[in-house]
Amino acid sequence: MKKVSILAMILIGLILAINHVEAAPPIVVGVNEVRSGPAKSNGDIYLIGIETAVKEINELGGLLGRPIKIVVEDNQMKPQIGLQKLKKLILKDKCEVIFGGGVPGLAIAKTMPRYKKLYVTVSQALDITGKHFNPYAFRTSFNTILNAKATALYMSKQKRLKKPFMINKDYSYGYDVAKLYEKFIKEASPGTVIAGNAFHPLFNKDFAPYISKIQASDADYVLTGNWGMDGSQLILQGRSLGMKLPIVNFLVCDPASLRTMPGSEAVGSIGVETFMPGIGTPETEKFENEFYKRSGGYWPVAQTWLGYQSMMMYASAVEKAGSLDTKKVIKAFEGLEWQGPNGTVIMRAKDHQAIAPMVIGQVVKKTKYFDFPYTKPIDIIPVDQLVYKPEEFGWKPYKEK
Hints:
Strand content: 15-25%
Mean pLDDT: 93
Order of helices and strands: HEHEHEHEEHEHEHEHEHEHHHEEEEE
CATH topology of the largest domain: Rossmann fold
CATH architecture of the largest domain: 3-Layer(aba) Sandwich
CATH class of the largest domain: Alpha Beta
Structural class: alpha/beta
Distance between the termini: 68 Å
Low-confidence stretches: none
Largest sheet: 5 strands, parallel
Number of domains: 2
């Protein structure tokens, strides 16, 4: 009888706790991402990661005992529209924090001191944690410095590959990729010679002229930071025109791009992430399977993973602060150590840049995760080989205006 009574009390307690969380006013978070146009898939998979993290947090009792509610706005990959949506999310929807990335990332980050709210971003714009650093912006993903350095360290071990041809999008991120990769590969492998360097418009449809330049050079591999359709089209058109060189693409791990290829065109391509399925430890396998179930059938890959990590790191900072007060959360976020499935992620206090181990992956024909070729982990670059001084890349302390 006593056992029944104790069990009943536990069940009642759980029901009351759930009802309490559901009855509490929600914490509103905003997602300012691309939701239309040719880059829509990037926003889609990022949002899945955010939603999966929120579902997990809410299932475990919410954040500070309150459920999280998501409000989503489409920035159309245009900075001005992104800023309009930002204003709406903060002033009308009363969001405590804004998540997002992409092309509008820097413009949004620079605007956050006006609103005194946090922006948690996966944007690759270096200036967010560099010369335009401000205390309201945190990058929870790798940046181009970390990506270039990790890739260069791996490629420096490939003794037969010493002449990259670099091809990138014609905007700030593409120029950062080219400049930083050249710096790090020459440091790690002094005998490297840059065989060529080209830049093309965003969402380019005809890569033939660029592929001709690559084939006319003496390059022995291609280096790119192309994402989305520009990443897949470079591979597809390159292979169809007889370009057989290995392709090293910082962001090849995006399943939305790999899915568009009808055959094995991407097989052999190299990419880098802070996490990808298939690492094979008990911790990573447990995480992958739980994520898959909770998300409704998605694996924690590329932007999906980064969305999840962003929300979980923010929630950890809020719990550490014990408050939603922006200043308290900033203080708690700085120096935060979040235990991810692949090791500890450190939020560096000085520039608000997350530092984590980087996983090198190579596209193979078959994995258990997808019915098309996808990346398999082949190496991990530890944190101690990736740390850098922010001042060397334009970081400046913030001065309140």
